[in-house]
Amino acid sequence: MRRNLRTPRAAQAAAAAVVAGTLILTACGGSDKDKDNNSGGKESGGSGSVSLPKLDGASLEVAAVWTGSEQANFKKVLAEFEKRTGAKVTFVPAQDPIINFLGSKIAGGAPPDVALLPQVGAIKQAVDKKWAKPVGSEAQAQLAKNYSQGWQDLGKVDGKQYGVYYKAANKSLVWYNNKVFENAGANEPKTWKDFLATARTVYDSGVTPVSVGGADGWTLTDWFENVYLSQAGPEKYDQLAQHKIKWTDPSVKDALTTLAELWGNKDYIAGGPDGALQTEFPASVTQTFTGGDQPKAGMVFEGDFAQVNIAETKAKVGTDAKVFPFPAVGDKAPVVSGGDAAVILKDSKAAQALATFLASPDAATVQAKLGGYLSPNKGVAPSAYPNAVQQKMAKALIAAGDDFRFDMSDQAPQAFGGTPGKGEWKALQDFLKNPKNVAGTQAKLEADATAAYKG
Predict the structure, then answer these.
(1) Alpha helices for 290-381 (secondary structure H)
(2) DSSP alpha helices (H): ranges in 304-437?
(3) Contact, 345 vs 115, CB < 8 A?
């Protein structure tokens, strides 16, 4: 379970500067000079900076929920590990919620050696179930060298290091089709009021303003979290994340009412609410950047990882696809971060070596070069990232240190914040369909949260 989750200040937030950095992404094409004017870690290459054992004859299974290009790119990281150690690594596609997937594997006597867990609470749950094994001294040394204390703490349970945060996410971005904006005469908004005005401008030009991947409930929790953090503030955000205040609190009502200003206008959502609820996240991105200047939508909200899906459309980040920070609803723009941590389930020399590799700049540099990825590893050179947009995000992420707020639903018990068709995912899907039902949505959220935190 994820109740009583530790959320130290250091771990409550790496993203403030991530989005602060995106404030300078408004032109976001950048220039080639950006690629040459970097500070940060050394470029990894050749035999790499981390020493790995020879593992000829060893085999490993690594499970994650990643699909498509994200999975393909991570397999290249695993291939580098194979090349350097002689081990054989098999990627095992997992389903959400991954804890349930792992539970069935363990019950069948065939757990993967390592799993990438997308929720902070899932790490604690794996420890509570006695599935997870602490990482060894070599991996801990890499973490101490390459990670801020906040990112290290996110992988700890009761003071022991179980998780290696291999991947970070900036979840406070809105991507837009530049041709649509140019044709409409639309500007990048800085406030929620401006955002709704921009949506109107895009709509008047003949393009539906916003694409929403409502079939994946986690995208809707990200919408809520950004609005709530900006409107209610960080203290309330922390309290709600730990269920120290109820979901019937007036601050939740305010956030849902704000969301309804967009979700309640079916003309502003690609396919309307029903269409959005049938649209998975990857399609919500690709339909924004296909169709030239007449795509299905002009904008799509989601994290830096949307670049993987943008790349599938052949749109170029920085010219065809641009980005602005999630607009400020309150006094400040929100800054929400997420991430995926490697956890060892079968303790072995090979599994520990993989954890060490994933904690090193070597592994992250392989995937950074492929795009659609950010690493909290400060040993990765910004120049490793393929475009100016990501280079600036990477610099800002590292500069942020421990100043960030972590994804709220990822801090909740899985039954509430991380299960398809249940809890927060389902309640917000229902709210997208009927944004007038603010009170009913609050009541459902509170009932589900109470059951999950007690459970």
Answers:
(1) 306-312, 349-358, 361-368
(2) 306-312, 349-358, 361-368, 388-400, 408-411, 414-417, 423-433
(3) yes
User: Three-class SS of residue 332?
Assistant: coil
| Shared domain check, 230 and 140 | no
Q: Which amino acid is at 201?
A: T
Does 112 share its domain with 219? Answer: no
- Residue 163's nearest CA partner among 14, 12, 342 is 342
CA distance 268 to 207: 9
- 442 against 121, higher pLDDT: 442
Whether residue 339 has pLDDT greater than 80: yes
Is position 105 within any domain?
A: yes
Q: Which residues pair with 301 in a beta bridge?
A: 174
Dist CA 21 CA 396 (whole Å): 5
List, for residues 21-74, the tens digit of each pLDDT value: 444 343 343 333 333 333 333 333 335 789 999 999 999 999 999 988 899 999
pLDDT tens, 249-273? 999 999 999 999 999 999 999 999 9
CA distance 19 to 10: 17
Question: What is the rounded CA–CA span in Å between residue 62 and residue 113?
Answer: 6
Do 289 and 199 belong to one domain? Answer: yes
Which of 238-242, 350-354, 391-395 has the weakest average pLDDT?
Answer: 391-395
CATH number of the domain that 100 lies in? 3.40.190.10
Element of type H or E holding 405: strand 405-406
